[in-house]
DNA sequence: ACAATAGTGTCTATTAGACAATATGTA
DNA sequence: TACATATTGTCTAATAGACACTATTGT
């Protein structure tokens, strides 16, 4: 039937711009769903990619770990819901990055059925403020590698979501300024390099890495020296210079991922398979 | 409140895995939404990027053009819903690309409220079969440039969705084999080049373009000659060789977009703004 | 012959990869 | 001094950009 699009079935819908579901409607022809917003919030700590998880108290998947998230309210946008849930459940109120990345709606993904979830990818450099959730019950950072190795039982389809999110982050690292979201307002180049290495799970040549970052145009550079220096590490070493992000990131990251000539992964086109 | 995640508010939910909305529920604490699936299906015709639109018959935005789409059913996945709607409304049953790309849920996006839509990006090379929708009422291809210039009145927030979709397609063109989805099983290099040029709205050097495509590894190349040749055009010219896509596209396209040093577009990180 | 489209070659500038060498701190 | 980390430099390979040139068709 080629006809009304994004449209309720052509019945007489006698309701206004109210946000509630209509009174008398045929549920089979006019299905409704719960809509939740989940947030994959990442950070790199000591060269390791971490993800913030909260422990469930309620019954389905009780005690399992899950992505922070919750219900979209009828009067808020998806973006607003993501901000709100992130703040409410983890205390993080100013992530350096927060953007939608995929939506999951498989009928079987929630045992209670009919729950469509819009997932956001968030990034924050600071770790200290993370666990200081409002009235935090149990929220903590887990190494992504451990979680994806199955060391932690995740609720619902959250393991798959996490896997997809990490993959997306790795892609975006190459085409955007996402890397700078993992570090503070000032940072050392080693710190920044460790972000790339953690997410790509690969070693980068230090010299080449630094050269890439110094390659912006004269007016818009990738990193700008602050003149300051951080303290040397406990085991010594030359104190690193502190930089801040420049304006050149608009065209994406100057650091390119090495060709992964690993497993010739099969066709990935038709249906990236968000569900 | 850090607690139940992706969880209904902790009330006694006395329902099974049924797919209908629960009987007696507090709508404010337990809101539900209509979920639709819309499809931005693109094609390149005569060097011009086109999008398939259908004309609305029902009241909100009656007679306006809209993206094909419709309701997700409770027992189907989002991907399945996208396939179904695409087939039902446009007759396209085998797009060469179909993948989710963003979800829109602003409370004001539908005058009737509470409609969250999951949008898919589809690509097909063939034009002939497109308009042969099952019982097509009015569906046709429009030049994307015209539509985005406001020459066509689009329903809901579909103009914005289209704009986002085109941008996404342009990005993916660089990092995937998306370009090959716009051409048939065999194609000429000029055809393939016109795909890039249409979507990036830029001219590419023919020589350099062809060199890029010839640059895959010995075992996995980007294009493989079929030995065949297409007929020359009406105005003459050397008959072009026909190629088919090789296995080298796994690492993305060998054709890179020129740096667009145009308007120094403002920060695009926090909230790409899907709504 | 001439116009039109397809396809090749060549020179140079830029960028990427490997790796050596130097600088400056702590134990 | 020994060690550890930071920072710079150098040589070479690969890729990108600009552009000239050849090839094969239709009118």
Write a structural description.
- The structure is a homodimer of 275-residue chains.
- Chain A is 20% helix and 21% strand.
- Chain A has five helices and nine strands, in the order ββββαβββααααββ.
- The radius of gyration of chain A is 22 Å and the shape is elongated.
- Residues 1-28 and 261-269 of chain A have low confidence and may be disordered.
- The interface between A and B is large, with 103 and 101 residues.
Task: Write a brief structural summary.
The structure is a homodimer of 275-residue chains. Chain A has five helices and nine strands, in the order ββββαβββααααββ.
Layout of helices and strands:
Two copies of one chain form a homodimer.
Chain A: E1 34-45, E2 48-55, E3 65-66, E4 69-71, H1 78-90, E5 97-104, E6 115-123, E7 139-143, H2 144-148, H3 158-175, H4 189-200, H5 206-213, E8 223-229, E9 241-245
Parallel strand pairs in A: 1-6
Antiparallel strand pairs in A: 1-2, 1-4, 2-3, 2-7, 5-6, 8-9
Chain A binds a DNA duplex (27 and 27 nucleotides) through residues 188-190, 205-208, 210-212, 215, 231-241, 256, 258.
Key phrases:
homodimer, 275 residues, 9 strands, DNA-binding
Give the biggest beta sheet of chain A: 7 strands, mixed
Low-confidence stretches of chain A: 1-28, 261-269
Shape of chain A: elongated
Q: What is the H/E string of chain A?
A: EEEEHEEEHHHHEE
Average of the residue pLDDT scores of chain A: 84
Number of helices of chain A: 5
What is the percent of helical residues of chain A?
A: 10-25%
Q: Give the strand tally of chain A.
A: 9
Derived from helix and strand composition plus strand pairing, the structural class of chain A reads alpha+beta
Terminal CA distance of chain A reads: 24 Å
Bin the strand percentage of chain A: 15-25%
Instruction: Please report the two chains with the greatest interface, counting residues with C-beta closer than 8 angstroms to the partner's C-beta.
Output: A-B, 103 and 101 residues
**Which oligomeric state applies?**
homodimer
Radius of gyration of chain A: 22 Å
């Amino acid at each position: 039937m080629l006809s009304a699009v994004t449209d309720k079935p052509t019945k007489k819908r006698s309701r206004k711009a109210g946000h509630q579901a209509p009174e008398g409607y045929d549920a089979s022809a006019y299905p409704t769903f719960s809509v939740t917003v989940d947030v994959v919030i990442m950070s790199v700590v000591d060269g390791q990619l971490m993800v913030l998880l909260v422990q469930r108290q309620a019954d389905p998947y009780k005690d399992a770990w899950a992505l922070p998230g919750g219900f979209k309210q009828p009067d808020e946008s998806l973006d607003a819901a993501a901000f709100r849930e992130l703040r409410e459940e983890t205390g993080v109120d100013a992530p350096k990055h927060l953007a939608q990345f995929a939506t999951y709606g498989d009928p079987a993904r929630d045992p209670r059925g009919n729950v469509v979830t819009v997932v956001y990818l968030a990034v924050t450099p600071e770790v200290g403020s993370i666990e200081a959730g409002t009235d935090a019950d149990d929220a903590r950072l887990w190494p992504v590698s451990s979680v994806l190795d199955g060391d932690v039982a995740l609720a619902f389809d959250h393991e798959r979501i996490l896997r997809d999110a990490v993959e997306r982050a790795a892609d975006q690292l190459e085409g955007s300024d996402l890397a700078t979201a993992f570090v503070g307002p000032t940072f050392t180049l080693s710190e920044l390099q460790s972000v790339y290495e953690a997410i790509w799970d690969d070693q980068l040549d230090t010299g080449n890495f630094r050269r890439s970052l110094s390659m912006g145009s004269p007016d818009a550079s990738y990193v700008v020296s602050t003149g300051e220096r951080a303290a040397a590490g406990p085991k010594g070493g030359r104190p690193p210079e502190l930089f801040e992000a420049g304006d050149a990131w608009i065209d994406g990251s100057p650091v390119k991922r090495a060709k992964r000539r690993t497993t010739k992964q099969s066709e990935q086109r038709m249906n990236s398979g968000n569900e």
